[in-house]
Every structure is written in C-alpha cells, then in structure tokens.
Amino acid sequence: xxxxxxxxxxxxxxxxxxxxxxxxxxxxxxxxxxxxxxxxxxxxxxxxxxxxxxxxxxxxxxxxxxxxxxxxxxxxxxxxxxxxxxxxxxxxxxxxxxxxxxxxxxxxxxxxxxxxxxxxxxxxxxxxxxxxxxxxxxxxxx
Amino acid sequence: xxxxxxxxxxxxxxxxxxxxxxxxxxxxxxxxxxxxxxxxxxxxxxxxxxxxxxxxxxxxxxxxxxxxxxxxxxxxxxxxxxxxxxxxxxxxxxxxxxxxxxxxxxxxxxxxxxxxxxxxxxxxxxxxxxxxxxxxxxxx
Lengths: 142, 140
What we know:
The complex is a heterodimer of chains A (about 140) and B (about 140). With about 140 residues, chain A is mostly beta strands. Chain A has strands spanning about 5-10, 20-30, 40-50, 55-60, 70-75, 80-85, 90-95, 100-105, 115-120, 125-130.
C-alpha cells in the first residue's frame, strides 16, 4: 500500500495584532471510506494560454462520489496573471500568481470535471497533481 | 497589510513518488499586497446529517481575492463532510459538490465570493455521529 501525506502550515504574525496565527494540519490520504492508501496519481506541468473557453484539466474519473484530491499551482510571477478554477462550470475561485490550492474532489457525477482558464491575457505556467481512489479507462475511440 | 503564508507539503510513494513543497503569501486580487481581514478560526460540533452553511457569500466581496481553509478535525476514515456550493450538499448529481473531507483531511482553496447564494459554502456530515469541523476565511 502506498502512503500519501498532505500537510499545510498557515502562519501570520500580523493578521491579528497580538495573536499570531499558526495552523498545522496533516492528513494521510486514503481510498474512499477505507484505511487503504491511495495508489493512483497523475502529476505534471503545463502552459495555459488565455482563451475564451475553459480547458479541461481533470475529466470525470468514472467512479462517482469517490475520494480524490487535487493540487494546482499557478507558477506565474506576474501579479496580473490568474487562473480561474471551476467544477462543472461552477467557479471555485481565482488562483493568483504564485498561489496554490488543495482540495478534495468527489467527482460527484459525470459532469463534475475540473476546468482551468488563464486570465486576463498571455500564458501561465502551472503544475498539478491528482491523487485518485479509482480510475476507469476511457472506452476505445472516445 | 498583513502577511499570511501558507505552505503545502505532499509526500507520496505512489509509483515513482512525489515530493511537492510550495509556499505562498495570500494576496489581494491581481496585487502583491497581502490579504488583511478574517473573522478568525471557527469550529463546530455536528450531530446530524443536515447541511450547514459555514461561509456566506457576503463574507467576501465579488471581484476580490478570498481564501477558505476547512478541516475535518476528527480521525475517522469512515465519516466525512461533504463540502459544496449548495444547500443540499449531498454527494452525487448535485451542483456543485466539491468533495469529501474524511477525518484529518483539509482543504485550502481560492474562493470567488460571487454575490449570490450560489457561492455560499455548505457542509454536510455523512453520519449523525459526533463530528468536528474547523474553518477560516481570509479576505481582502
């Protein structure tokens, strides 16, 4: 069994005067509803060019309502550049230059694909990883 | 301006393995100026499967940058919270469920505080057993 651990540390000394913020959280990522570690992973990098339509980063996995986890990072250093991130055309938020996200994705139905788009112009370097409980290979010719 | 730093580390031995480490400062929209506001860290005990709104769209401002952190502080890998952009917050076929946070799982996402109830964030436990959640919203 593989072991995948995701940890976050959020800190601020000046967000709330006199009360430093220090959040630490760590989780070992398991297959849907089990204590068996995830064993499927895709990761990579890409260049995203501004266009009028979203680009599909993760297609529906074929196993609805499963435990999967997504990491995306906008590696641009231009503060004007941001990426929109959506699920099934619902905007989650805008990922600014140098920013990352990490979230669960249960692939709730066949339309729950994750899409990204570069804004407002130019090309954005990004990196991603997805850790999956299951994956169904697409049918030949699809 | 405040400086809020978030660092993620992902280590995995799946296949050839993965070691991701990335640090970011939370900035205002299209800016190098840091986010400045929060209502603080919230926590709640849940004893029912009823969906509960944890973030209201009015907590942020449309067109501005916001971040949302959520964590299931329990340890059960059987029990989880659905996190969703809808009041039903159920699993399959709803628009739009994000995912499931099992015991110990966390998420940190940018949040578009679109001025509409479509961007309220709800959670719903899968069990009436006692579960605990913490969350924090960072805004401009």
